[in-house]
Amino acid sequence: AQSVTQPDIHITVSEGASLELRCNYSYGATPYLFWYVQSPGQGLQLLLKYFSGDTLVQGIKGFEAEFKRSQSSFNLRKPSVHWSDAAEYFCAVGLPSGTYKYIFGTGTRLKVLA
Amino acid sequence: ETGVTQSPTHLIKTRGQQVTLRCSSQSGHNTVSWYQQALGQGPQFIFQYYREEENGRGNFPPRFSGLQFPNYSSELNVNALELDDSALYLCASSLTGTGETEAFFGQGTRLTVV
User: Fold this and answer.
1) Which of B40, B69, B86, B96 is most buried as measured by Cβ atoms within 10 A of its Cβ?
2) Cα–Cα distance measured from residue B22 to residue A87, given in angstroms and rounded to the nearest whole number
3) B45: closest CA of chain A, how far (Å)
4) Closest partner CB to B90 (pick from A44, A49, A100)
5) pLDDT digits (tens, 9 = 90+) for A52-62
6) Separation of alpha carbons B93 and A111, rounded Å
């Protein structure tokens, strides 16, 4: 069955430090890959997406992610975290065959220390 | 903002009651998907509507039902509400038939069942 794993439930970093959020997926082919951010009580904002092509994708707010097929991973990175980045981050895969739906990970809550 | 609007933003219902949630999809999109996000969890796929018909369903009981209208807006209906139905309900619109595509999420409806 398809699944998405975000192994880190909580991550705390200091403002200005670098960040990497991990995401691994299980799917028989290459899915579409997404990272979303959610502030408390809010909907989902798309940070970046991967469909095909260059495996390093750039997103909004200075985020980037790298697709590694051999590791079935799509980790999110940011070189310097800002206090406003504190939120919950969700990795999702979009299944391009059949019903186009998303499978989400359980999320990583990011706390930023001033 | 994504152009996907949901109403109401918050709702409190009593166990056993019925509820209807509404979603207006982004202009030009023909597909609406609904997700349930319980507290501390990632969103779970409920079902999808395309051309006014259900086009895939997740692991949710039949008391979760929906409609899509000719203008592609959609409703989610939940009958016989249970306490565990308390969650954030997210609507996502997308365009089926274009290959690589992404879904755009609304801000959600927070349902509390007491």
Assistant:
1) B86
2) 26
3) 7
4) A44
5) 889 999 999 99
6) 30
Interface test with B, best of A46, A102, A104, A109 (most B CBs within 10 A): A102
CA atoms within 13 A on the CB side of A4: 29
Residues in chain B: 114
Please name every residue paired with A35 in a beta bridge, in sequence order, or none if there are none: A48, A91
Hey, which bits of A17-114 come out as E strands?
A: 19-21, 24-26, 32-38, 45-50, 56-58, 64-68, 73-78, 87-94, 102-104, 108-113
Q: Which of B40, B103, B106 sits opposite A102 (nearest CB)?
A: B103
Q: How many CB atoms lie within 10 A of CB A56?
A: 11
User: Do the Cβ atoms of A32 and B100 come within 8 Å?
Assistant: yes
Q: For A90, which residue in chain B has the nearest alpha carbon? A: B42
Task: Tell me the Cα Rg of chain B.
Answer: 13
Which is it for strands A102-104 and A87-94: parallel, antiparallel or unpaired?
A: antiparallel
Give A10's pLDDT tier (boundaries 50, 70, 90). very high
Q: Please name the residues in contact with A19: beta carbons below 8 A apart, sequence gap of 6 or more.
A: A11, A13, A76, A77, A78, A81, A85, A110
Quote the CA–CA distance of A113 and B11 in Å, as a whole number. 34
The pair of three-digit structure tokens given for residue A8, joined into one six-digit string: 């880190």
pLDDT digits (tens, 9 = 90+) for B15-57: 999 999 999 998 888 899 999 999 989 999 999 999 899 989 9
